[in-house]
Each structure stands twice: as C-alpha cells, then as structure tokens.
Amino acid sequence: MMKPKSIAAAFASWFVIISLLCSCISGDQNETNYEGLSYNYYEKTCPRLEEIVRSSISPMFALDPTAPAALLRLMFHDCQVQGCDASILIEPSGDQQFTELDSAKNFGIRKRELIGSIKTSLEVECPQQVSCSDLIILAAREAVALTGGPLIAVPLGRKDSLSTPSKHVADSELPPSTADVDSILNLFAGIDMTIEESVAIMGSHSIGVTHCNNVLSRFDNENATNANMDPRFQTFLRVVCPEFSPTSKTAEATFVPNDQTSLIFDTAYYDDSIAGRGNLRIDSEIGVDPRTRPFVEAFAADQDRFFGSFSSAFVKLSSYKVLTGNNGVVRGVCDKVD
Questions:
Q1: Is-catalytic flag, 77?
Q2: What domains appear along the chain, each with residue ranges and CATH number?
Q3: Which of 68, 101, 178, 282 has the most neighbouring CB atoms within 10 Å?
Q4: pTM to 2 decimals?
Q5: Is 28 annotated as a binding residue?
Q6: Would you say 266 is a known binding-site residue?
Q7: Annotation-wise, does 259 bind a ligand?
C-alpha cells in the first residue's frame, strides 16, 4: 500500500505534468502569432466583437441559406489576391476604372454589403478598432460553424489596405475553374499548406453552388471531362447546363449544387469526389490523383479528421500576406479608403 507521502509526491508529479500540458495547449492558442496576429487581439479594445459578428450573421443565414457559401468564397477571393486585406470590398475611385472585383473570376461575389453592415454596428460599439479584413475572416468562420462545421479559433489583428489591385492582378492570382491537382497543390503550397491541408481546404466546396459557366468549361476539354466522372453525372450536368456559351447570361444565371448536401458543411463533398460526381475538374481529380486520394478517402470516412485539417488550413489561408501594425489601416467604412 502506498504511503501518504508517496501519494502526495505522486499527485504533485501528475499536477506538474498536467500543468505543463495545459500550458502548452493554451499557449498555442493565446500566445502564438501568425505574422503579428494574436488570438486575444481585441480582448480589451472590443471584447464583444465575436458576439456582435455572430448575432449580425445568424439572422441573415436564416433568410438566405446561400449566404454562408458566399461569405466563405468572399474570404477566399480576398486572401488569394494581395493577401487578406479587405481590398475586395473597395469600390473604384478616381482614375481607377477596373478593380479586382471586375475580374471574371470574381463573378458572383456576394455579401460584401453584409460586412459593411457589421462594420457600422461595430463603429458604435468600439469605433476605429476592428478592421474590415478581420470581419471578413470572422464572417467566414461563422459561415462554417453555423452550417455544421467546426468553430475555428482564428488569430486577429489584420489591418486593411489603402488600395485595391487591378482586375488584371486578380485574373493572374485567382485559380481558374479549369484548375487541376497540380495547380491547386502549387497554389496552396505557396501558403505553406501540406497536401492534406490542401485537400481539406477544397472541402469548402461542401457548401454552395457552381455556376454553369464554370461547369461548361469542363466540356471544352474531353480528357478533363471524362477524368473520374460518373457517366450519369455527366448526363445530369449536360441537362442542367445545356450547350450554350459559357459567357452567356443563361450560363451565369444557372447553377448546380456543389454536393448532395450543399447547405451543410460535411464530408459529402469527398463522397461525391470518390464517386465521380465533382462539378469542377479539381473536384473530380482529387478523388483519383495518388497524391490526394488517400486524404479524400480519409476525410470521407472521418469527419473529425476533416474538421481538424480544414481548421488548420483555414488559419493558414486567413493569415496569408496580412498587413499588421503600421503597415495598414483600420478603414472607417469598408468600401472606401478614408
């Protein structure tokens, strides 16, 4: 039988071990910075920030079930062009006629006004504190969580840009709808993502729709069309998206769901990829490419693993080329430069 002193010593040892473990876990979230960002950035200057964002967005989701996918896409397209700096919200001014928003690859970008509305509320609560770029990230984070996905802890402290790049910059930096596995892996490798994280971030296609003008581009390349595509699904796409010009108004107004549960953030996207039911070329190819298929299969079988890898990838993408400190500003109005 263990003596009291031995029991006390053992307890003390376990207490030290547990304390160290807890310190490591909390340190990852509270102290680690991503290029100057912090998990407790607004703790003193705007403590109700996340509560206000959530209460502003939740009613919108109830009225418009497509809003979550729109907010997630807004974040992706802002971060992939010049970094996460809210430049996609800026309206053209002066001599600048065409901004990044005019890029054909930004067709269908929506809910910019929702970010502006949240910003207006926050200017009353904590004026000139919260950047528009942080609001885009928080809105996308809520979009994932409120559709059934993980609630991702994201570091904050981004500043806004003072300018928006041209449409030509957006054209060159945003991936085309015809992107294949090589180009997507190269794109996300530039954000320091692993292959597993790259496959996970593609899971954002779990919610939302694909416009027919992007689907039709697959049929321009017969090899890309047949790569891991269920013949019945190909027939379905051709019926929903008949052979009209990809640039026609009809093609822009018609769409197909991204997967069989397009309003829920889940693993159905990976089931569809394996079965050859991907809307875009990349959606199909990740299900057969030997570099990506193991992760597609793993995510299809294990939602927790998908959520964990997606969360890691989300933080990396949302921290890409951010402006911090004196390198940017906090815009008073999101669509204008003060």
A1: yes
A2: 48-208+258-319 (1.10.520.10)
A3: 68
A4: 0.85
A5: no
A6: yes
A7: yes
